[in-house]
From TrEMBL:
InterPro entries: P-loop_NTPase. The lineage of its organism: Bacteria, Bacillati, Actinomycetota, Actinomycetes, Kitasatosporales. Residues 892-918 are annotated as: Disordered. The chain crosses the membrane at residues 98-118, 124-143, 325-346, 381-397, 409-427, 447-465, 486-508. This is KAP family NTPase.
Length: 918
């Protein structure tokens, strides 16, 4: 980017061949400066103003740099612009040399000729005579002839000029888009960064924080190493298994379980209760599984716990009544039309054929009755023996397994018979003498109109079938109507037009057509009877889940009464039966059986079943978590079912060290384990970039260091950045980092002081609490620029042994638990002081590069590891922070020298920033 002296906006035209090009460039500059991501950066520092940025973008070298990537679109726009200018100049030249009278004469001539064309020949001759004579006179005069030619030339050039102007406008828009995307926009970012200064990344100018405000939104989830590892382990356990997801609280275990459950074919996610009973937990999981399967299959779980009996009955009857009313209304209308059309034909057929059918039926009935009577009277011994054998065979066939095959063959027979009837109807048409004669007479009279009428329905039919996949999905007719509305319109219109032809009307009026139609309908009825099935058959598993829900959530009672005795004396006996809730072993067995059936169904469809049990680490201790795993072990190990259980780190450690020195419950309960580790700096940056785009690197490193790479805390500190910026209007890193670190330190020390207050103190050791109170009083204003007294107070807590200055006798009175809390608070104060020294000073970029050049201890990722180490041991964390401070060349001791007590708190506001309440 050039740093030459900028030139005024009106001088930009000197850099372009045409003034219109300069206008397009200026418009592109203004559009790029108005982009929210750029406009947000303007005005945050004195030199970074919109006027300075616009002046820099109009400098000669910067204009050349911005236009260079867009030469092709510029040349196209320039060529069209030059052509348009030449066309416009020609039109102006022709317009200046025409006479208005010629325009009037030409218009009158054209109007007269138009009137003559639509009038009788005398009127036409009179209307054309005067204009013709006038035209001859004008044409013979040289000057008038020139005016007429110029007018005609102008009229022909005007539409061409309009089209050329439109093409030029399109080319200008294309060049403007090209400039904004590839030329001016990248240069604008460089110009704004240069105006902001070398440390421009230290400004908090994120585009938005929408992703941080929706922490559970799957749209912002970033795939981690643990997610990829879990997918591999699930793929390896094809026949099912139990996988534990181990990690600290907030590491993303719940998000990982929900993501894997969302990718499965059928999944159930449940939360482990803080205080649990194995029976209650399994009962809840059983009910949740049944309800989830009903929803998965598109059914509504029964709501008998919330609805009254009347509403339950209405809820079941109303859909059936609505469907029955629809069928009745359309069925009556359609049946009436069919009966009306076929009544005469069926009545005629019955009149002719009924005597023969009745005689044959009567003869058959008489013979059958004679045979039955003879067998009953003992006159046909052989027939009687045959009847007995048939009866025995019929009883033995009650459990025959081939009845389903017989039903299949019967259906095939009905379908073949129906198709045969339909085909016979079509083959009967050529066999009709009347139809052959009529068709022979009409063949020679077919004209162009008839061919057109025949082509219309054929075109519509081809349009319908051209892009049809021929897969049976739902109702084929409805899908065709939705996919090809134009084809259906042509087909129906063509059929309607065919009935305007005499031949079509004659063919439709054949007397045998009602009989043919009756046979065709009979064939369709046979096919429909063979292929009929319930509209929405309820799967057996859905019925099973409903029954199980009713059994698990209700108490069923049945009663019967018997009344006996004479009318004067009535005796009543009543019996009542009530179901017993299933016990724990029965509940386990039934749940495993149901889950296995669901898993087999999903496995056939090549889908996975996942049961995710979250929040097991809420049970309080590893002993309670291990006991919980031991109790639910009975439901694990279902084939083709993957159990995912989130556990704490100590339970995961128990599985890792299995067999050393003895085996525990995790060995037999878990098949594998996935450790969800805290994020690295790169992973934290990816999460923040997804959730808060535009957040610069120093703020990502700051939130990563404070959170230790734990995603939940990372999102929380990202929201704190937005909160501080909104509350204080700070945009500089040193201000925002100081505010955030001091607020966090104040809250943490307040928590330590609360824990210390629960310890036993004496008059000599109580000065430690006084020191904590003074430090918190220093932090209460939470001024980001700090003060000398505040730094001395933090150094006193971070570098001194808080109990060391009490003397040996007083120090011995401090309990071990209290001393451990003091060491933890001192280590966290040192960590906060380190972050203040790194992020709370200016020139961050230079110091970061210098620290990274001194060795691995200067890497920003090490700050997050130091925060993680604080959770392990304050002593190892101090060792790591000593290396970090050495790489960043920070003081390794108090800058004010040894001090015995914490200095008194401030009582005045900071001159740079107003007092802000923590």
């Amino acid at each position: 980017m050039s740093r030459r002296r900028p030139r005024p906006a009106w001088q930009v035209a000197d850099f372009f061949a045409l003034e219109r090009e300069a206008e397009v460039y200026l418009a592109a500059v203004d559009a790029c400066l108005a982009v929210p991501a750029v406009a947000r950066r303007l005005g945050v520092r004195p030199q970074a103003t919109a006027e300075n940025a616009r002046a820099a973008l109009l400098a000669e070298a910067n204009v050349e740099q911005a236009v260079a990537p867009c030469r092709a679109t510029q040349e196209r726009f320039r060529a069209l612009l030059e052509r348009s200018e030449r066309q416009r100049r020609r039109l102006d030249y022709l317009r200046d040399r025409t006479h208005p009278l010629t325009v009037v004469l030409c218009a009158v001539t054209v109007l007269a000729l138009g009137v003559g064309v639509f009038s009788s020949w005398p009127t036409a001759l009179a209307a054309a005579a005067a204009p013709s004579l006038t035209a001859v006179v004008i044409w013979r005069h040289q000057v008038w002839r020139m005016h007429v030619l110029l007018n005609l030339r102008e009229w022909t050039l005007r539409p061409r000029a309009s089209l050329l102007d439109r093409r030029t406008a399109w080319a200008a828009a294309a060049w403007s888009r090209d400039l904004q995307e590839h030329g001016v926009r990248p240069l604008t970012e460089l110009v704004v960064e240069a105006l902001l200064g070398e440390d421009h990344d230290s400004l908090l100018l994120a585009d938005n924080f929408h992703g941080l405000r929706s922490p559970r939104n799957p749209r912002y989830v970033v795939e981690s190493l643990a997610a990829r590892s879990l997918r591999r382990k699930i793929a390896q356990l094809e026949s099912g298994g139990t996988i534990a997801v181990s990690g600290s609280r907030g590491a993303g275990k719940s998000t990982l379980l929900e993501t894997c459950a969302g990718e499965a074919g059928f999944a159930v996610v449940v939360q482990a209760p803080a205080t649990y009973s194995p029976y209650d937990f399994l009962l809840s999981l059983y009910v949740r599984t049944c309800e989830s399967y009903l929803v998965h299959q598109g059914h509504v779980p029964p709501a008998f716990l919330r609805l009254s009996p009347f509403r339950r009955v209405a809820r079941r009857l109303l859909p059936a009544l609505r469907k029955g009313f629809t069928l009745l209304a359309f069925g009556l209308a359609a049946g009436s039309l069919v009966v009306l059309g076929l009544a005469a034909s069926v009545r005629s057929l019955t009149t002719r054929q009924w005597p023969i059918v009745r005689a044959w039926t009567e003869d058959l009935r008489r013979r059958a009755v004679d045979v039955v009577v003879d067998i009953w009277e003992g006159e046909r011994i052989g027939a009687a023996v045959l009847v007995v054998v048939v009866g025995v065979l019929l009883w033995s066939l009650r459990g025959w397994k081939q009845w389903r095959a017989v039903r299949t063959y019967a259906r095939i027979t009905l379908v073949v018979a129906g198709l045969g009837l339909i085909v016979a109807v079509f083959f009967s048409l050529p066999a009709d003498d009347d139809l052959r004669t009529l068709a022979g007479r009409a063949v020679g009279k077919v004209g162009v109109r008839d061919l057109f009428l025949l082509a219309v329905p054929l075109v519509g039919l081809v349009n319908l079938l051209s892009e049809q996949s021929w897969e049976i999905r739902g109702r084929l007719l409805l899908s065709l109507r939705r996919r090809r509305p134009a084809g259906w319109a042509l087909f129906v219109t063509g059929l309607a037009l065919l009935f305007t032809m005499p031949l079509t009307r004659a063919l439709a009026a054949d007397p045998e057509n009602p009989l043919r139609l009756t046979v065709a309908l009979l064939g369709l009825l046979l096919i429909k009877t063979a292929t009929w099935s319930p509209a929405n058959p309820i799967p057996p598993l859905v019925t099973t889940c409903r029954d199980e829900l009713f059994r698990l959530q209700t108490v069923q009672t049945a009663s019967s009464a018997v009344t006996a005795g004479p009318p004067q004396l009535l005796a009543t006996q009543t019996t009542s039966l009530s179901t017993v809730p299933p016990n724990f072993p029965e509940l386990v067995s039934d749940f495993r059986m149901l889950l296995q059936e669901i898993a087999v169904e999903q496995h056939r469809q090549e889908r996975r079943v996942v049961i995710a049990i979250d929040e097991v680490d809420r049970l309080g201790s590893d002993t309670a978590a291990l006991a919980f795993l031991g109790e639910i072990k009975a439901i694990l190990g279902v084939p083709h079912v993957h159990y995912l259980i989130s556990v704490a780190e100590d339970v995961g450690a128990s599985f890792v060290r299995r067999g050393l020195p003895h085996r525990g419950v995790t060995d037999s309960s878990l098949d594998d384990i996935v450790h969800v580790l805290p994020c690295t700096l790169e992973e934290s940056e990816e999460i923040l970039e997804r959730r808060a785009s535009g957040l610069s690197e120093p703020y990502k490193a700051l939130t990563h260091a404070l959170s230790g790479g734990v995603p939940r805390d990372l999102i929380r500190y990202g929201l704190r950045l937005d909160e501080i910026e909104t509350k204080t209007r700070f945009v500089e890193l040193n201000d925002i980092a100081g505010q955030l670190i001091l607020e966090e330190l104040s809250d943490t020390l307040a928590g330590f002081r609360t824990l210390l207050g629960k310890q036993r103190w004496t008059a000599r050791t109580g000065t430690i609490l006084v020191a904590f109170r003074n430090v918190m009083d220093h932090l209460r204003p939470a001024c980001p620029c700090g003060s000398t007294e505040l730094r001395w107070a933090l150094e006193h807590v971070a570098f001194h042994d808080l109990g060391g200055h009490l003397g040996e006798e007083a120090a011995a009175e401090v309990s071990d638990e209290a001393r451990e809390l003091l060491d933890e608070a001192s280590a966290y104060a040192l960590f906060s002081l380190t972050l203040l020294d790194i992020f709370g000073r200016g020139d961050f970029a230079r110091r970061r590069d210098e620290a990274a050049a001194r060795g691995p201890a200067g890497a920003l990722d090490l700050l997050g590891r130091a925060r993680q180490e604080l959770e392990v041991s304050p002593y190892s964390a101090r060792h790591l922070m000593g290396s970090i401070r050495s790489a960043w060349q920070l003081p390794e001791g108090p800058t004010a020298g040894p001090r015995v007590t914490v200095p008194m708190p401030r009582d005045a506001d900071c001159p740079r920033h107003p007092r802000v309440s923590v």
